[in-house]
Write a structure and sequence with these properties.
single chain, 291 residues, alpha+beta, Rossmann fold, 6-stranded mixed beta sheet, 17 strands, globular
Amino acid sequence: MTQTETPPVPSPQVWLVCNAASGSNDDDSVAAVEQGLAEAGFPVARTLRFPDEEAPTPAVLDAAQVDMLVTFGGDGTTHSVVAEAAGWSGSVLVLPGGTMNMLPKRLHGDVPAADIIARLGAGSLETVRPTVISSRHGVGLTGILAGPGTVWNEVREAMRALNVVEFVNTAAQAISWSANGPKVVCAEADCGRDEGYAAITVTPGEDGLEANGYYAESLADYAGQGIALLNRDFRDGPHDSLGNHRQIRLVCPSGEPMGLLIDGEPFDGAAEEVFYLATCEVDLVTTRDGS
């Protein structure tokens, strides 16, 4: 009887997208991710440097026979990569490589990239299609911020650039604009303060879109709330719960365009914006129950 050898199982085709501008995304951390993936049985065939190189489309991924796309960057990079991959039949592994890492926390818990990679099994990967926010601007994976409070995004950019003078100037302007800029209201019946809010957040959950309106009653409150806005950590600020919705309509009563951030990135808001609960259109790897 002739013995035959079982052919080795080929490694999956893996591409990695990283962004050098993200919080913890330097050359050493990217190399560590590449090494960890190789040791876990997912060697990286190609590394793309976003945004100098575009996020790959399903057509590009299919042409290269990619099985898994890995994104290692902040919330903005993750937003671009996952949105561009919508409709693709492969899976996307989202690793924390930025400051807030909202989606990785949802998929894996609050753990570093190395721990997530170590959880990857040699067999089939567990994937999910979480709820997201849909709008005319595209998908929101982690949340929406609307209102004059979005001006604090400019302060964050000054901090990233380590420009002290610009930071001081933009912070002072942000406090003033947060207090005096055109407020935003939730247009549903009996939904919050008639005068509106400096910031309304909309976050996707399993039961709907959770909306909260943030207000302040003094310049000191606005300054303190601005620091929270910088960190995208609104929980400690004074706010009203605006309920859970399948669809939510935000309006600027003055008719002016509203400030708008989606996954922390600025978009051109109109005087009225509608957001819907939707499902992510690509499989995302989850390791939350892994060990």
